[in-house]
Amino acid sequence: MMMEKLKVYADRMSQPSRAVLIFCRLNGIGFVEIKVDISKGHHLSSEFTEVNPLQKVPAIVHGSFNLSESHAILVYLNSAFPGIADHWYPSDIFRRAKINSVMDWHHSNLRNGAVSYVINTVLGPATGRTLNPKTAAEAEKVLFSSLSNLEDIWLYGDGRFLLGGSQPSIADLSMVCELMQLEVLDEKDRSRILSPYKKVLQWIDDTRASTNPHFEEVHNILYRAKKKFEQQCSRIAETQTKPSDKIGGHSKM
Amino acid sequence: MMMEKLKVYADRMSQPSRAVLIFCRLNGIGFVEIKVDISKGHHLSSEFTEVNPLQKVPAIVHGSFNLSESHAILVYLNSAFPGIADHWYPSDIFRRAKINSVMDWHHSNLRNGAVSYVINTVLGPATGRTLNPKTAAEAEKVLFSSLSNLEDIWLYGDGRFLLGGSQPSIADLSMVCELMQLEVLDEKDRSRILSPYKKVLQWIDDTRASTNPHFEEVHNILYRAKKKFEQQCSRIAETQTKPSDKIGGHSKM
């Protein structure tokens, strides 16, 4: 069956969007990137709603087939495109099952903690939302517990990647992209969160190195956003008459 | 390879545990059920921690292989045991991709909303935890939005099951088991939440009917728990001197 070129609907500020884009580039999958700028509400447009009624990125259209949810997309791309190296999503049922397991775990743990923490410390005010310090504190707990589980359970054995792997899988790509969003935090805060987890830090570096130059190119938008947030924070700090705590300081609550 | 009989570590009060147990029974998979009573802290025992270092149910041991996360387990069982009907996890890559997509969506939506709502309205006091009415209100929003998405997006077409299916998949089983936990709510509250969603209600009935008698047998524990919570609530109501709102009424906050 001859199909139209794959379309990837993505906002590079979204970590699962970045994972899908990097995966396609790494594996020589021909695709068209269609930008869906969430900050401008493009995900709510009728055009995108036809692609994904759930109005979330990433989403793909492949011929007459459309699909959302980054993990499902990564798994689909592995079956739909020939010649993708086995380490990305091993055909061995035991290794594949373990990769499915860590990707399922990801949703309610690392993803849940990281997204909620970043929204309630930095991204909230940058996108006009109020911050909730109590939610940030709860998210921090989930984030720390997830990082501990990564360090002590998922990054086992001698391999550099999850589940003792010697080469990255789609789980490594998905979860390292998730952690990269911590880049937008204040540098001190990011270091406070990540520095206790030496294996996690090494794993981020290893995944980045093994997926470059695509990894850095697709993450460039995040480094630019980081600078913008830093400038906003220093402007807010200048206009404040008294110091306030970092988490609650810019809250409108 | 000859393997030891499958061991399923489960607490029937856990909805993903129930999904795995029902799936095994439906498909004639020989297994031993090992009860892990969460209310008694058995998931924290050193014996269970060896099976699943994450200390969560369900988990399986199959020969020397162990696995956690219910969706990963259901997918694994489909590959590891011969003769399971294709509708549970279709081999067609497009249908399989859609089932992966709805199961990925489930984590941060239906599961997130339902679990948090039930814990912060009923299960909290029953397990000695304080209730958080604000969290309950946020969970209710997620739950309603998830039910709307099920009704309007995932339950499309003429089929009785998710994604237009004419027979149930592992996604139907997982998500209906999730919704069944609403049984422990006050009957009025359960009806308030579910009654606007006619297709969802029909889908729950259809999934139940097509997986009986196993569905009802494995859910019996939930119906007994419902009765216990009702008795507890009426005892609390008798000892209270003034009426209080349903959500915040029994909170220790």
Cα distance spanning the termini of chain A: 56 Å
Main sheet record of chain A:
4 strands, mixed
- Which residue ranges of chain A are poorly predicted, with pLDDT under 50 across at least 5 consecutive positions? 241-253
> What oligomeric state do the depicted chains represent?
homodimer
| Alpha carbon gyration radius of chain A | 19 Å
Total of helices of chain A: 9
What is the helix content of chain A?
55-70%
**Total strands of chain A:** 4
Q: Assign an overall shape of chain A.
A: globular
Order of helices and strands of chain A: EHEHEEHHHHHHH
Strand content of chain A: 5-15%
Averaged pLDDT of chain A, please?
Answer: 91
- Largest protein interface, residues of each chain: A-B, 31 and 31 residues
- Could you give the order of strands across the largest sheet of chain A? 2-1-3-4
> Under the CATH scheme, which class of the largest domain in chain A?
Mainly Alpha
Catalytic activity (chains A, B): RX + glutathione = an S-substituted glutathione + a halide anion + H(+)
Protein name (chains A, B): glutathione transferase
Family (chains A, B): Belongs to the GST superfamily. Theta family.
Domain GST C-terminal (chains A, B): 92-229
Give an account of the 3D structure:
The structure is a homodimer of 253-residue chains. The first copy, chain A, folds into 2 domains: 6-84, Glutaredoxin (3-Layer(aba) Sandwich), CATH 3.40.30.10; 93-239, Glutathione S-transferase Yfyf (Class Pi), Chain A, domain 2 (Up-down Bundle), CATH 1.20.1050.10. In chain A, 57% of the residues lie in helices and 7% in strands. Chain A has helices at 15-26, 46-51, 70-80, 93-126, 133-154, 170-180, 187-194, 198-211, 214-239; strands at 6-10, 31-35, 59-62, 65-68. The A-B interface holds A 53-54, 65, 67-73, 75-76, 79-80, 93-94, 96-98, 100-101, 103-105, 107-108, 111-112, 149, 152-153 and B 53-54, 65, 67-73, 75-76, 79-80, 93-94, 96-98, 100-101, 103-105, 107-108, 111-112, 149, 152-153. Chains A, B: Residues 4-85 form the GST N-terminal domain.
